[in-house]
Amino acid sequence: MRTECRLCGSGGQGIILAGIILAEAAGIYEGKEVAQAQDYGPAARGDSSKTDVVISDEPIDYPKCSRLDVLVALSQRAFDENNRYLKEDGLLIVDSSIVTPGKEEDVNRFPMTEIARDQVSSPMSVNMVALGIIAGVTGMVKLKSLKQSMFGRIPAHTRNANLAALIAGFKIGKGKKGRRSANCLK
Amino acid sequence: MRTECRLCGSGGQGIILAGIILAEAAGIYEGKEVAQAQDYGPAARGDSSKTDVVISDEPIDYPKCSRLDVLVALSQRAFDENNRYLKEDGLLIVDSSIVTPGKEEDVNRFPMTEIARDQVSSPMSVNMVALGIIAGVTGMVKLKSLKQSMFGRIPAHTRNANLAALIAGFKIGKGKKGRRSANCLK
Predict the structure, then answer these.
(1) Is there a contact between B14 and B126 (Cβ–Cβ < 8 Å)?
(2) Which residue of B has its CA nearest to A37?
(3) How confident is the prediction along chain B (186 residues), in pLDDT tens digits per residue?
(4) Where are the beta strands (DSSP E) in A96-150?
């Protein structure tokens, strides 16, 4: 089984770091096969940022995503560019503080930016809110693994804020667990 | 033209971050097409860490390296595992504080760990010494681009040490510029 997960947003939201932390959580702390990749340059347009994380039971040949099982969008532009690659039964998670995904009914909407700013008082940690939500909604990675992985990748003085963001995301994600998540992840 | 560059070493040397900084330097600050990727999990063995950076004039389909134009090895194990993938006319750069590459004559040897520890007084910044050396030896990326990219990816309080490491690497690399670098990069 191969699960293709794409995180996308705008520059400065910590998308790439979130991809690495997700990949290391599943690969190093849960022993799964994981590949993680991103593009830069003219082909990666303008201010948009995206990273692909592929998790599999078997060694991974091609580390980029082609048909997404999970798409997490933290900006309108990133959503507009990437939504077309989501599988029909794929899981869509958006930052509803920023993204208006249109008329799709099966969208998992979470006000990530507001949670980071108001609940955690750390706007910079919106990426960790997103990771917590991914773990809570999909169960594709454990909260504990994300914590361990995160601690290895962030500056020590940001630990408390990032941990609070991760846990806040996990709790709100878990509250919606199951909604359109079963099809593509089982 | 497609240039495949692999950085490898052991966990904790900052290999992944170095790959991202190299990729962003070429992709964002020099407008080249760049893909950057890494694997985690059982397939990525033990304590070794590696990241692939592919730089091209055209959009990149496959973001991992198959036949290396440039291999930079910061641990013996990583060297042993990856040396076989270097092209015949490829460029090999090793941390001679740690790696004994055997009888190859055309090796660019730099005591990276010693430079980071003794010259810069910052052992943690051996990855930036390596990046500086890559820029100095190959010219595949500009020092200025690496600086800009690095500043976007490291904590502010580590700026001075990392900048000193980058420049120290660049100077020592430039001193050896040209040695076995022309074939694969032109």
Answers:
(1) yes
(2) B37
(3) 899 999 999 988 999 999 999 999 999 999 999 999 999 988 777 788 999 999 999 999 888 898 999 999 999 999 999 999 999 999 999 999 999 988 777 899 999 999 999 999 999 999 999 999 999 999 999 999 999 999 999 999 999 999 999 999 999 999 986 555 444 454
(4) 107-110
In chain A, residues 117-176 whose CB comes closer than 8 Å to chain B: 155
Judged by a CB distance cut-off of 8 A, whether residue B31 touches chain A is yes
Q: Tokens representing B78? A: 């990583």
Token reading at B145? 């681009």
Distance from the Cα of B35 to chain A's closest Cα (Å) equals 4
Pairing of the two strands B107-110 and B86-95: parallel
Task: State the complex-level ipTM.
Answer: 0.90
Query: Contacts of residue A60 in chain B, CB cutoff 8 Å?
Result: 39, 43
Q: Does A109 touch chain B (CB under 8 A)?
A: no
Cβ of B34 under 8 Å from any chain A Cβ?
yes
CA distance A96 to A101: 8
For residue B84, give every residue at least 6 positions away whose Cβ sits within 8 Å of its Cβ, in sequence order, or none.
Answer: none
Specify burial of residue B27 (Cβ count, 10 A radius: 0-12, 13-18, 19+).
buried
Query: What are the residues whose beta carbons fall under 8 Å from the beta carbon of A161, sequence distance 6 or more?
Result: A120, A121, A122, A124, A125
CATH code for the domain defined by B2-185: 3.40.920.10
Nearest chain A residue (CA) to B35: A39
Task: Tokens for B173, please give them.
Answer: 């690399």
Which chain B residue is nearest to residue A30, measuring alpha carbons? B41
Interchain pair B38, A33: CB under 8 A: no
Q: Give the tokens for residue B100.
A: 């004994």
Q: Where are the domains of chain A?
A: 2-185
Secondary structure (3-state) at A176: coil
By C-alpha distance, the chain B residue nearest A66 is B61
> Residue A97: phi, psi to the nearest 5?
-70, -25
Predicted model pTM: 0.93
